[in-house]
Write a structure and sequence with these properties.
With 80 residues, the protein is of the alpha+beta class. 25% of the residues lie in helices and 12% in strands. It has a three-stranded mixed sheet, with no helix packed on it.
Length: 80
């Protein structure tokens, strides 16, 4: 981006995934899409407990809603 003289977020908006610690340390700080590790762990433990109890588990999909951690790397567009 710097080689092309592009400014983040004025010329290009960037969004990362996983909300790694480094996202807070870079400049501008990186907006990310994150998910709750706590909820993922809770769901995993629930499944493990069922398996240990001998429950037969069918194939399933568990959706954990992601959320945006808004930082400095995304420009807010003026709708006008």
């Amino acid at each position: 981006m710097m080689e092309r003289n592009l400014n983040i977020p004025n010329d290009v908006s960037l969004i990362g995934v996983d909300d790694l610690r480094i996202a807070r340390m870079v400049h501008p700080s990186l907006t990310t899409i994150a998910h709750s590790i706590e909820i993922m762990c809770k769901k995993a433990v629930e499944l493990i407990v069922k398996m240990v109890a001998g429950e037969q588990l069918e194939e399933l999909t568990i959706l954990i809603e992601p959320y945006i951690v808004d930082r400095e790397s995304v420009c807010i567009l003026d709708p006008n």
